[in-house]
Specification:
8-stranded mixed beta sheet; single chain; about 35% strand; about 20% helix; 5-stranded antiparallel beta sheet; alpha+beta
Length: about 700
């Protein structure tokens, strides 16, 4: 063989085996054609794979029963219609078998507390979609207080993150003719008053950042052309975001811009004396809103002697005057070894603080009268997990949700947060005594104790053959907390399965430090944590590699992709949903550049050194054995590019591996835009798990 032929052969071998040094990865990717989302050749390949998957699993004897079971549960009318408070009305978005795309509706506070509220339809999305011949998916409404009669409604075509913005009049129940309108884009907007809006959107060439989000925030006056509106702020091309900031409350209004130089840093600019002024705050901060001329923030770095994870009330005038001292700050919450901040909700005269204590939720009530702060814990709830369902800036009305894995979700109501009464409860879907729930800890590679929840039938025997599904996420400080078992989970458990939820590092279960410990160069810790739980389940006799499956989506898709390429011997089923997989190109695809703070920059030689060691697409080889992985994604996903799943699946097929692939044509990052699609996708997954693990 001549030298040219030898070089050509080596190139083929490198591409097939996924060699992962930096020079090799700069070679032409033979599967780039699958990144052409709507490309004819790519869609033909997608359709061929979809047909194979449907033929294999949707024709199974049990598929229709599973599909109907899931769909009936999703469409059930006995679900809790979770509230959103706007003035004297309670709003709710609702989907069922008669409202596939859904209805946005409202009722009075008094009626909402009844078992059968009298709902008034505000927008019928199915009717609107039929009239306009669009596949509209509801993306929410931002209404101007205190009367909430004017709303900025967001509608997505097919479920994408990108949406159309349209002004809606609640009283006339019509879109405002010649009102505020912005074409499809990944956009963010907020009211200043009835005739002015702050908006960050696609204003044309050069106005989007590297991640495809708006660089500019503009002041948009009623009647003015959007593209000629006044530029208030412009971030850099490599900045992650520039968002409008608007707080309209009975105790004062504040307007400005929230700038994100990186994914985990923020700079707040507020208007004061007709100028946009940078507030003197730490960079690693989350901002919850204003309360009595104070700014409520949590910090992910030490600041002025306050610990990471603290909730602080900061004097706004001092922050704008660049005169912040510890005396300008009131600490409302400081984390402990087991207790961490989860969420904050600000009412008219109160603050509700939701914390996690060993991954169980509780809520603390704060009130400031004059210079004195009053603090009390909300009590009287009979389930494990408390969360704030809704509150209102213009009143002290609050709704609290309470649930556990085996206790149905309950909704509690109070006008002043002093005494809550239970007004709604999800009907019991199963006998809780039939299941056993435990929290265990595995030991990760570096010795760290990693918590996980294990749910099984109470007659489960430790015989090393129980079909087990291990679920994880482990990123972006997102916590996986107890919630009432879903129809998917119940279906799995009732047929002898075990369900396990991993609380690995990278998540937020133990606060910012738990998240930060698995960033960038330390990302492997999240994968080691997940592997340690799998090994613990096997060593305890719960399951075995041939009966163990894993499931994860988005960042969780990257998790299971990395873990199965590192330890394919541990698993016999992998559900890899809307995943990141090609970590060499992830920052070039859609919103990927905004996640460099989480994973690292593959164009940086030093950072690629640690990324390349776990990047699934670069670490799948023709000479290794893998379980038959189930990849699924959505053509309309404009957050995580479907090319990740497409390319990984095709590469593995060409290497001689067996895979399963399904791509929903719509649905965005959730991969489903209605309950029928959700039920279909979930039924396919359950058939796959039964096929692989119940042997």
């Amino acid at each position: 063989m001549n030298r040219l032929g030898l070089i050509f052969l080596i190139t083929i071998i490198i591409n097939a085996c996924g060699m992962s040094n930096n020079d090799d990865n700069k070679m032409k990717d033979p599967y780039l054609w699958l990144e052409d989302v709507e490309g004819k050749e790519a869609l033909q390949w997608v359709e061929s794979q979809n047909e194979l998957t449907k033929e294999r699993y949707s024709q199974a004897e049990t598929f229709n029963e599973t599909y109907n079971y899931l769909l009936d549960d999703y469409n059930s009318v006995d679900r809790i219609p979770f509230p959103s408070i706007r003035g004297q009305y309670i709003y709710n978005f609702w989907r069922d078998k008669n409202n596939i795309r859904g209805i946005w509706r409202r009722t009075s506070l008094e009626s909402y507390q009844n078992d059968a509220p009298e709902w008034e339809t505000v927008i019928d999305v199915d009717l609107l979609a039929n009239e306009e011949n669009k596949n509209w998916v509801w993306r929410g409404a931002n209404c101007l207080g205190p009367d909430f009669k004017k709303c900025l409604v967001s509608l997505s075509d097919g479920g994408k993150d990108a949406s159309v913005l349209r002004e809606y009049d609640i009283e006339t129940k019509t879109f405002v003719e010649d009102g505020f309108f912005a074409p499809e884009a990944k956009q963010y907007s907020d009211w200043i008053n009835e005739d002015q809006v702050l908006i960050a959107t696609d204003f044309g060439e050069g106005t989007l950042n590297e991640s495809g989000y708006a660089r500019q925030v503009r002041l948009w006056n009623r009647g003015d052309n959007l593209l000629s509106s006044e530029i208030l702020f412009e971030g850099g091309y490599q900045d992650i975001f520039s968002f409008p900031f608007s707080e309209i409350r009975p105790d004062g209004n504040y307007f400005g811009v929230l700038e994100g130089p990186t994914f985990f840093t923020k700079i707040l600019h507020l208007y004061s004396n007709d100028k946009l002024i940078k507030a003197d705050l730490p960079l690693k901060v989350d901002i919850y809103g204003t309360y009595q001329n104070l700014l409520l923030i949590s910090i992910a770095e030490e600041w002025l002697g306050f610990a990471i994870g603290s909730l602080l009330a900061v004097n706004i005038e001092d922050a704008l005057a660049q005169n912040i001292t510890s005396k300008s700050v009131k600490m409302l919450f400081e984390p402990t070894d087991t207790s961490f901040l989860r969420n904050v909700s600000i009412g008219k005269d109160q603050i509700l603080v939701n914390t996690l204590d060993n991954i169980k939720g509780k809520i603390t009530h704060f009130k400031k009268i004059g210079k004195t702060w009053f603090e009390s814990n909300l009590r009287g709830f009979d389930e494990d997990m408390l969360s704030i369902s809704a509150s209102d800036s213009w009143s002290n009305i609050a709704f609290i949700g309470s649930e556990s894995f085996t206790q149905p979700t309950g909704l509690y109501f109070s006008k002043d947060s002093e005494e809550f009464k239970k007004i709604k409860s999800l009907p019991r879907k199963f006998d809780p005594s039939a299941y056993e729930v435990n929290q265990f800890f595995s030991q990760s590679k570096d010795g760290t104790e990693i918590p996980y929840f294990q749910i099984s039938r109470n007659d489960m025997v430790l015989n090393s053959s129980n079909p087990t599904l291990l679920y994880g996420y482990g990123g972006f400080e997102i916590s996986l907390t107890p919630s009432y078992l879903s129809a998917f989970s119940r279906k799995w458990l009732d047929h002898g399965g075990v369900y396990v939820i991993a609380n690995i590092r990278g998540g937020g279960e133990y606060g910012p430090k738990w998240h930060q410990s698995a960033l960038k160069a330390n990302r492997q810790r999240a994968y080691d944590d997940f592997i340690s739980i799998a090994e613990d389940l096997i060593s305890k006799g719960v399951t075995s590699p041939k009966n163990l499956g894993i499931r994860g989506g988005s960042n969780g898709g990257l998790l299971v992709g990395a873990v199965v390429t590192q330890r394919p011997d541990l698993f016999n089923a992998v559900i890899c949903a809307v995943p990141l997989l090609d970590m060499y190109r992830y920052d070039k695809l859609l919103a990927g550049a905004s996640w460099v703070d989480e994973y690292g920059d593959p164009d940086n030689e030093d950072e690629w050194e640690f990324i390349k060691k776990y990047s699934p697409y670069q670490n799948v080889f023709s000479n290794r054995e893998y379980p038959e992985i189930y990849f699924y994604t959505s053509t309309k996903d404009d957050r995580v590019h479907p090319g990740h799943a497409r390319k990984m699946a095709k590469k593995m097929l060409d290497q001689g591996h067996k895979i399963i692939y399904y791509e929903n044509v719509e649905g965005g990052h959730s991969a489903a835009s209605n309950y029928e699609q959700s039920a279909f996708m979930s039924a396919l997954q359950l058939e796959y798990l039964n096929d692989k693990l119940k042997k």
